[in-house]
Amino acid sequence: ALNQWFSRFPKNFFKSITFDCGKEFSNWKAISNQHDIDIYFADPGTPSQRPLNENSNGILRRNGLPKSMDFREVNQTFISSVSNQRNHIPRKSLNYRTPIEIFLSYVQEAFYSNLI
């Protein structure tokens, strides 16, 4: 799923990504090589190395998605709905812009720079 998603963007669009040590990231070398992304791993038991992710997880749990939830039983419509909600909330860390605004500004910039 990650490989497919990264394939939608120009190479070098993403500079780096930090994973935890979950087995779902076992294909990290393929992602790194195919998309030219530097990959880092947080040390086990140190959520402070991925604070934005941990904050987002906490908010998701407060909104009814327990840590123990098995996502294999959740349909894509539900996941997309939650993601859409989260991406339209203004963040102080983004100067009160939404994550989707910031992301789309980078996409637009990458698109136009490829035209030149």
Task: Give a structural overview.
The chain has 116 residues and is mainly α. It is 47% helix and 7% strand. It has a domain at 1-49. It has 5 helices and 2 strands, in the order H-E-H-E-H-H-H. The radius of gyration is 16 Å and the shape is globular. Residues 1-107 form the Integrase catalytic domain. GO terms for molecular function: nucleic acid binding; transposase activity. One of its GO terms (cellular component) is cytosol. This is Integrase core domain.
Summary tags:
116 residues, globular
Summarize, please.
This protein has 116 residues and is mostly helical. The chain has 5 helices and 2 strands.
State the order of secondary-structure elements, H for helix, E for strand: HEHEHHH
Helix content: 40-55%
* Apparent shape: globular
Number of DSSP helices? Answer: 5
Work out the number of β strands: 2
For the termini, the CA-CA separation is 31 Å
Largest sheet strand order: 1-2
Mean pLDDT equals: 86
Secondary structure category: mainly alpha
The percent range for strand residues is 5-15%
Biggest beta sheet summary: 2 strands, parallel
Q: Tell me the Rg in angstroms.
A: 16 Å
Poorly predicted sequence stretches spanning 5 or more consecutive residues = none
